[in-house]
Design a protein that fits this description.
With 217 residues, this protein is of the alpha/beta class. It is 44% helix and 12% strand. A six-stranded parallel beta sheet has the order 3-2-1-4-5-6. The chain is globular. The N and C termini lie close together (11 Å).
Amino acid sequence: MIDWDNIDTVLLDMDGTLLDLAFDNWFWQRHVPEQYALNRGLDYAEAERILHDWIESHLGTLNWYCLDFWTRELGMNISALKRAAADRIAVRPGAEAFLAALAGGPKRVIMVTNAHRDALDLKLERTGIDRYFDALVSSHDYGHAKEAQAFWRQLNHSHPFDPGRALLVDDSLPVLHSGRLFGLGHLASIRQPDSSLPAREHTDPFPAIDDFLRVLP
């Protein structure tokens, strides 16, 4: 499934790819509405409706991923809420073995995440997976989400690589489409980003990884 002989650079997403997306889905879809309802004296259903529409209006933009933005918008310390719930953060099965196998080889391994630096730092603190990477890149460093071509141009400027010989693994199909548009030669998604939800039937047109242990380099 992965043509390792023709790959020099491995670009890996974090949430939903290496880490279980169950944490973030629970946090934004349940915990934040609960806290917002308490703070504003609303019932949960009303808070959920307000936040769903509010957050979805920023989908695919850097604001959607920015903890500073949502702290200002909602009047809640989102970073502190995440840290208080950090025991829910978990590495996906097989992901650390996959990273360890890559770290022992000749390929350059770069994390490319839309996560805000506060969230990234917290998750690295909890999991220790930063030790497997040659570089850690947040889209907030460049001012553009991975859905934008400007992100990939800046990434290639900061960490030069041959796009045709790069692999991107990401659970987000819009991000994979953006990577393909930039010219990334190898693209793969994740079958089940959130362990609390059923696996996706497909991630067409991109192949999906069911088990990292089956695609070790």
